[in-house]
């Protein structure tokens, strides 16, 4: 069997938002029973059929790089993570729907990975305002995933999801909200599964079919 082509997708977000549980669910289609803190970076692989069901269908490896989520502006912390940001093809931004700060920090994570975090203060969100121009020329496909949907009371769910929907709009990305302890949220044929497949297709297209200097 010929070796499969592969793409590299970063999984970024604060510690405790459920990145490791998400990656395990995406790659193993199983719930991670005893998640632990990720130190440095952990890599898992998902097999993805590009344009499944069409004449162009082809199988690829999706490398999911789960980067440890210690938030800090220290140069040493950022330089340590920087080694994982080389030659990335896509980014999954993960936030905890019950933790508003983890949602706001996605702006910092994304700009750090894209080498755009050059402001000395690191302040990217002020009173809820966000400068979308920082992503105007971004060519790296992004996907926003909110976790712990099950922990939001039904009475507050609409309010929370309305607030977080602006994240996806700011990043010009699709949005998936789920509970990582329930595989049904990514069941085949579901809207979430379709969005995920569409994102991976876009990552592959940018890497292998569009010669526009998208790699960083």
UniProtKB/TrEMBL annotation:
One family name in Pfam for this protein: Roc
Assigned keywords, A-Z: GTP-binding, Nucleotide-binding
Keyword GTP-binding tagged: yes
Coiled coil, from the record: none
Domain of life assignment: Eukaryota
Database matches in InterPro entries: P-loop_NTPase (IPR027417), Sigma_54_int_dom_ATP-bd_1 (IPR025662)
GO-annotated molecular function: GTP binding
Disulfide bond found in the keyword field: no
PANTHER family, per database record: DRAB5-RELATED (PTHR24073)
Family: Belongs to the small GTPase superfamily. Rab family.
Protein task: Required for KRAS signaling regulation and modulation of cell proliferation. Regulator of KRAS prenylation, and probably prenylation of other small GTPases. Required for lymphocyte development and function. Not required for myeloid cell development.
Name of this chain's protein: Rab-like protein 3
Species annotation: Haliaeetus albicilla
Gene that encodes it: Rabl3
